[in-house]
Specification:
This protein is of the alpha+beta class. It has four domains: 72 residues; 97 residues, conserved putative lor/sdh protein from methanococcus maripaludis s2 fold; 90 residues, Elongation Factor Tu (Ef-tu), domain 3, CATH 2.40.30.170; 150 residues, Beta Barrel (OB fold (Dihydrolipoamide Acetyltransferase, E2P)). Strands 3-12-15-14-13-16 form a six-stranded antiparallel beta barrel. Helix 1 packs across helix 2 and helix 5 runs antiparallel to helix 6. 21% of the residues are buried.
């Protein structure tokens, strides 16, 4: 009995082992087994049981492959789109350094263009200088009589015309001068009438010749006194037209006033009087200057004097900008203190860009040398430490690296990078540089 139980137990164990082994094999090999069964047309019950895990597992693989394919396509499309948007790809090298501008945009930006050509570079003497008012266009106005200021008609900065009244000065000296003039004028008129009467009587043999001669002498003396008083008033600033006004009744109210007038047209740059102040002939009341032309005072060292001549052109650079002027004076003497010769450069200042008192640097052109290719220095910009210009193209401008050589204040020699006749921008080049930097920043992004 025990042997029978033992056999039965062993048989059951073998069945269990066989069954467990089948389950493990089916779990690991279910996909290929189910696929094989499906291809050979097995029953629905077996297929349904065996294909259920296969379908779930197979769908997972397909979903994963579809997602990978979608990601790959998206990445590829995004990459191409990014390149197209920022100009990458086949035309990247062609577009680099190009600024696209239309003719209208170039005109609106004020960009001027010139062709690269031969020219001359000047040998220059560079000196510091100071802007001053031109001495022949400036006046210090001093009262010609002593008195009290009763009216100041002009202030600092006012623009005046020649003959404008700057101030009124009440003066006893002025009143006495006018009174002497009026008295001399009346005496001269009376002496002239007496002379004419005596002359007529003498010619008719009615009066003696001595009376005629006495009347003539009296008239001449009266005329001399009248001329002296008139000249005195003219010396005080009254011309012939002003003297005629003294014959009117209104002149009596103005006899004691001296009119301080401007001798030239310009601008009041100094005023040194106030109402009620007593002034005299030693007091500088106003300074008027015509600043449409200014001077640059410089000093030339003895070593440079042999090269500097009056009439040469000079380029002046200062806070007022940059301008060309003419050397109008070179002193023939050396200053014992500075050991240099004074020189004066005249500048046009109609735009009031130069202010007296400011400092500037001047480069005096003493000689010239012919160069194969030169360009204005304003056309050159520095990008990444290299000199560049902007050459004109059908699309706009392109950056062109160049190598420069000798230069003066206005021009630079081109050693390489440009050819004769190339068109380049010579104004607003900083704007082009900024546009190029903006384009390159977007390109990198």
């Amino acid at each position: 009995m025990s042997k029978l139980k033992t056999k039965t137990f062993l048989a059951a164990g073998l069945v269990l082992l066989a069954s467990g082994s089948a389950v493990v094999w089916n779990y690991k090999a279910a996909p290929s087994y189910a696929a094989e069964e499906d291809s050979h047309g097995h029953t629905e019950s077996e297929d349904a049981h065996d294909k259920e895990p296969e379908a779930e597992h197979g769908d997972g693989h397909e979903h994963q492959e579809n997602e990978e394919a979608h990601d790959s396509t998206a990445k590829e499309e995004h990459g191409h789109g990014h390149e197209d948007e920022h100009g990458h790809g086949g035309d990247e090298e062609h577009a680099e350094g190009v600024i696209a501008l239309t003719e209208q945009q170039i005109t609106a930006a004020g960009i001027k263009i010139t062709a690269v050509a031969p020219g001359k570079l000047s040998r220059e003497v560079s000196v510091p200088g100071k802007i001053v008012a031109a001495a022949d266009r400036m006046a210090q106005i001093v009262p010609k009589v002593s008195g009290t200021v009763t009216e100041a008609a002009k202030n600092l900065g006012d623009i005046v015309e020649k003959g404008d009244v700057l101030a009124l000065i009440e003066s006893r000296e002025m009143a006495e001068s006018v009174a002497d003039y009026l008295a001399a004028k009346r005496a001269e008129e009376l002496a002239k009438t007496t002379f004419n009467r005596e002359k007529g009587l003498w010619e008719k043999k009615i009066t003696a010749e001595q009376d005629y001669l006495n009347a003539r002498n009296a008239h001449q003396e009266a005329k001399i006194r009248f001329d002296l008083t008139r000249q005195k008033l003219q010396a005080l600033g009254h011309d012939s037209e002003m003297l005629k006004e003294f014959d009117t009744a209104a002149a009596s109210e103005r006899l004691r006033f001296h009119e301080l007038r401007s001798p030239l047209s310009g601008r009041v740059i100094a005023r040194e009087l106030t109402l009620g102040e007593y002034v005299d002939a030693t007091h500088s009341a106003f300074t008027v200057a015509d600043l449409s032309v200014v001077w640059v005072e410089t000093a030339i060292s003895p070593g440079d004097l042999p090269f500097v001549k009056e009439g040469q052109t000079a380029t002046v650079i200062g806070s007022g900008g940059k301008a060309d002027g003419n050397l109008i004076f070179v002193s023939p003497a050396i200053d014992p203190e500075t050991r240099a010769a004074k020189a004066i450069i005249e500048l046009d200042n109609k735009d009031s860009q130069w202010r007296p008192g400011e400092f500037a640097n001047a480069a005096i052109s003493t000689s010239a040398q012919q160069i194969n290719l030169i360009i204005p220095k304003d056309a050159v910009q520095t990008i990444e430490g290299k000199p560049v210009v902007f050459a004109r193209t059908p699309q706009g401008f392109e950056k062109r690296e160049i190598v420069t050589g000798r230069e003066d204040s206005n021009h630079a020699e081109v050693v390489s990078g440009l050819n004769l006749g190339d068109s380049i921008a010579i104004t607003s080049t900083f704007t082009l540089k900024a546009e190029l930097g903006k384009a390159e920043a977007e390109h990198e992004h």
